[in-house]
Queue: 2 jobs
Job 1
Amino acid sequence: MHLFFLSEGFGINTNVLETNILNLAVVIGVLVVFGGDVISSILTSRRDRIVQSVESAEKKYLEAQEALEKANMNLDEAKQKAASIRAQGDSTVQQVVDLVARLAAEELARLEEVKNSTFALAEQKATKQVQQQLVSLALTKAYTKLETLLKSPKAQKAYVSQAILALRAK
């Protein structure tokens, strides 16, 4: 549908493709003429901000790399210290175990000596007690026998004679 006002020289073009190209050319022309400097400054500003962001990101990346290296060095040092502490702890534990074992052996030997000496003392005491009881019993028997012998005059005379003969024989 074409409407042209032939007498006036003005008309409506209903062809979409032709009108869009024409409209686009007009808009681009206006933008280039009037907005070229503005767009250029906006794009330059945008480019500068992007460059700054990239440089800032690179700087932060390098700082992070340095911090990571330092943290890894600290971790290695901590691992070495931990290994050293663990070795010292193991050594100390072994020394304590050896000391306790040695002290236990010494105490066991001392207790064995005490046991043996206690048994020896108990044996001596028992032997002495038995000897005392035997002496007491022998004395009691001898006293009883002597008393019986000395009650009769005839037995007294025989005992005295025997004692005299025994003394002469020596």
Job 2
Amino acid sequence: MPWNFALLRYGRDGSPDSSFGVGHSGATTTLIGSGAVPHGLVLLENGNAVVAGQAIKAGKFVFALAGYDRRGQLDLSFGRQGMVTTSFSSGNDVAYGVAAQRDGKIVAAGTAHENAPGGGGFALARYMGRLFCRTPNVRGRQLGNAKRAIASAHCSVGRIARAFSAKVGAGRVISQCPKPGVKQPDKGKVSLLISRGNRSR
């Protein structure tokens, strides 16, 4: 019988969480090839999780990752139908750790060709996650500089309005919507109010 990834969630009292897993059992299992063994887990900001380890593909171990939603179901937007495998070498490749970057990308670390006669090597893979926009603080910046900061944060520029301001120099951002630090989907819009300068001048 092939081995599966197994994921369990418990309540604060140590009992299985009935809101999680297959049939509300608190547990879920995932078949990835055969010989699947998980070694690491990372919780994402949206409450989802990614598990990394190993699975047998074409007669050898490869990096294996599976993404899960908050309910313990496979996140079908991750990889192919919730799973992804990566082969680095002709030998066994195993992921022993996994981490998430601030932009949502997933990084898995482990070994490549670890059963080689001369020893294996270090292996590192990065996967495109579900990117999101965290609104940067662009108040007081020149419009061009603000646009670049917004694009770097995986956001997009929304409506631009202009108004006179006695406090903010011409061409600079008076205010923004949403406010700094707000998390939005990838390419979420940031609307700007730009100063026309002091009306009295």
